[in-house]
Design a protein that fits this description.
It is a single chain. This protein is α+β, with helices and mostly antiparallel strands and 321 residues long. 43% of the residues lie in helices and 21% in strands. The chain has two domains: 187 residues, Jelly Rolls (Sandwich); 104 residues, Orthogonal Bundle (Arc Repressor Mutant, subunit A), CATH 1.10.10. A seven-stranded mixed sheet has the order 8-9-1-10-3-6-11. Strands 2-7-4-5 form a four-stranded antiparallel sheet, with no helix packed on it. A hairpin with an 8-residue loop joins strand 4 and strand 5.
Length: 321
């Protein structure tokens, strides 16, 4: 019997993702990075190893200052600008390939920055799902003392992970490129865990996960999405009234429990349609629909196409199941 997976493990299992480290930026002020938008299936990340960086506000407000130990995750893969915080014209950067990685450097004379830059790659469909539940800009400040023991442990684990990534980029170790990408993949899960355990978890799924009273409902939907869950049943699991459950869920997540459950069911069924030959009826039953017709309507409304067309795009022949 396989062990139960926690909600984050289930989410990442549903939305497979791989990390990719692109650059190690070693600049001295003045410096500036104008990063173009990433593709629809990519999320950018930056790790400040030493020094500081200012993240420009796209609306012209005050920049967000990143310090050593901070991890920036841009879930929307948006265009963004990082700079040294001054107004002097940036020194041009040059690139060199060494130690399984590209290093970007400039000829500045001011404060030194050392930063790792990469991306998380997944299918556009899975990226769209994750973006519904993650903040557009997530900053994990690992050097800020956590108020919880779990947060302290996750922060220490992130420090160890960052140190290992820094070491792997500093020498030409055998298998270094594969190691860096594997560590980047682990970085995503560990950053989300750390954020969910912080005292001020960002809005969305991370805030919901960090609210113990609602955890039973979250676990129930991720562990057994095919069960005929209703709002009263989910509220009962959390030992609260239906009205209180609905209010708190909406307040923390920004959408209803029914919407989250539908997203989980549609993601699982979309994955099954693309990776197995199980019949549409069998998949519909497995994700909690009492009739294939109801599932067909829900899938088309959610995905913009029928299950058959979705499966055809993946080239999977439906079984007789």
């Amino acid at each position: 019997m396989s062990p139960l997976r926690d909600w984050l493990s289930r989410l990442l299992e549903m939305t497979p993702l791989r990390g990719q480290l692109d650059l190690r930026c070693q600049y001295r002020a003045p410096w500036r990075i104008d990063q173009e938008a990433f593709s629809s299936g990519e999320m950018a990340y930056h790790i400040v190893l030493s020094g500081s960086a200012s993240l420009a506000d796209p609306h012209g407000g005050r920049p967000e200052v990143l310090q050593a130990g901070d991890i920036l995750l841009l879930a929307n893969g948006e265009a963004h600008t990082l700079h040294d915080g001054g107004k002097a014209r940036a020194k041009p950067a040059t690139s060199r390939v060494a130690a399984n990685l590209v290093f970007s450097e400039n000829a500045g004379k001011g404060e030194r920055l050392d930063m790792l830059c990469g991306r998380f790659v997944l299918s556009p469909f899975h990226a769209q799902l994750l973006r519904r539940y993650l903040p557009g800009r997530l900053i994990a400040r690992t050097n800020v003392a956590s108020s919880t023991s779990a947060g302290q442990k996750s922060g220490a684990a992130l420090h160890n992970l960052m140190a290992l990534m820094q070491a792997e980029t500093g020498a030409d170790f055998l298998g270094g490129r594969a190691m860096l990408d594997a560590l980047s993949t682990a970085l995503f899960a560990l950053t989300l865990r750390f954020a969910s355990e912080s005292a001020e978890a960002p809005a969305g799924l991370l805030a919901l996960a960090g609210y113990p009273r609602l955890a039973p409902a979250l676990d129930a939907m991720f562990h057994n999405p095919g069960h005929p869950w209703t709002l009263p049943l989910l509220a009962e699991r959390c030992n609260m009234s239906r009205a209180t459950f609905v209010r708190l869920f909406q307040e923390k997540l920004g959408m209803s429990a029914s919407e989250l459950l539908t997203d989980i069911r549609m993601t699982l069924s979309a994955n099954e349609l693309r990776s197995t030959t199980a019949s549409t009826g069998a998949i519909a039953e497995a994700v909690g629909y009492q009739s294939e017709a109801a599932f067909q309507r829900a899938f088309k409304l959610h995905m913009g196409m029928t299950p058959a067309r979705w499966r055809k795009q993946a080239g999977v022949m439906e079984g007789n199941g």
